[in-house]
Specification:
The protein is α/β, with parallel strands linked by helices. The protein has a single domain, classed as Rossmann fold (3-Layer(aba) Sandwich). The chain is 45% helix and 15% strand. The chain contains eight helices and seven strands. Helix 1 packs parallel to helix 2 and helix 4 packs parallel to helix 5. The longest helix is centred in the middle third of the chain and has 29 residues. The protein binds NADP nicotinamide-adenine-dinucleotide phosphate. NADP nicotinamide-adenine-dinucleotide phosphate binds next to helix 1 and helix 6.
């Protein structure tokens, strides 16, 4: 992993899904790179998970203040988001950042059924609320907040994507559509905002809770056993390894804003 301690300078970072898995690893991996006076806000529903992340982050860096925010993004309103962000990034004693980053990481798999069986309309609506709609609103609220509180800061938007954004997986229709939709939203953002850096990062198959669900709940037999084989053959990645690659990609600046970059791509 490239980047020396504090080399990113004073930053504000917002990480969704910070209570476990990849989001917790992003907090832990990025924190040492942030300079003195930086703030990191971690959003999730589970207080205990956020507290664990805070504990890990304190070990990783004494310079960064971590602020846990309990918010259910599937139901949070624009006002809930604005209130949380202004409360934690605003304030006269908060050093002005040169760089602000938002990691749109929170996500869910939804029902892993064939499309012919996706008859639960409420579930489908809730799925897209969390995985697509809330991302649009949170991103707009975040950009508005940054432009009013820290107008000279460089904005970087990182969308946690997936191979499923670019490849169909049987019985994973909701997940694939959500990830493809998010990638396109952020490609549009990159074209609308030439001064904002946008990255769609596919982190590879991770050895965490989401993969347990993939191995046990996937309706398609072939796909379910492919996930089990990946686990049995030791092909799943530790979250920290994937975060290391993400940091290398951000530091290298070799991608074009809006690109989809996979863990397995050459830098
Ligand atoms: N695991 C993989 O193999 C893999 C592969 C490719 C891409 N990804 C992507 O990586 C990202 C992180 O996934 P992960 O593997 O770390 O999954 P995970 O272990 O299931 O973690 C999901 C995170 O999202 C949060 N979250 C879920 N619903 C939420 C809600 N309604 N409001 C706020 N936060 C919510 C969870 O926190 P709470 O439960 O505390 O709310 C948790 O912190 C996702 O976007 C996923 O699609 C994962």
């Amino acid at each position: 992993m490239s980047g020396t301690e504090g080399s990113w300078g004073v930053c504000w970072a917002l990480v969704t899904g910070a209570s476990r898995g990849l989001g917790a690893a992003i907090c832990e991996g990025v924190a040492p790179l942030l300079g003195e006076g930086s703030r990191m806000v971690g959003v999730a529903r589970t207080a205990g998970g956020l507290a664990n992340t805070e504990g890990q982050l304190k070990k990783a860096s004494a310079k960064v203040e971590f602020i846990p925010v309990e918010l259910d993004l599937s139901v949070a309103s624009k006002t809930d988001m604005e209130t949380a962000l202004k409360l934690h990034f605003g304030g006269e004693d908060v050093p002005s950042p040169s760089r602000v980053l938002i990691f749109h990481n929170a996500g869910s798999l939804g029902h892993l059924k064939y499309l012919k069986d996706q008859v639960d309309q409420q579930h489908v609506q809730q799925y897209f609320n969390l995985n697509v709609s809330s991302v649009v609103t949170l991103n707009a609220v975040f950009m508005g907040m940054v432009r009013s509180l820290a107008p000279s800061a460089a904005i970087e938007v990182i969308n946690i994507s997936s191979l499923c954004a670019v490849q169909p997986f049987k019985s994973w229709g909701l997940y694939c559509a959500g990830k493809a939709g998010r990638d396109m939203l952020f490609r549009v953002l990159a074209s609308e905002e030439p001064n904002v850096t946008v990255l769609n990062y596919a982190p590879g198959p991770l050895d965490n809770d989401m993969q347990v669900a993939a191995r046990t709940e996937t309706a398609d037999d072939d796909l379910r056993s492919a996930f089990s084989s990946m686990k049995n053959e030791g092909k799943l990645l530790p979250c920290s390894t994937s975060v290391g690659k993400l940091i290398d990609i951000l530091n290298s600046k070799k991608f074009k804003s809006g690109d989809h970059v996979d863990y397995y791509d050459e830098l």
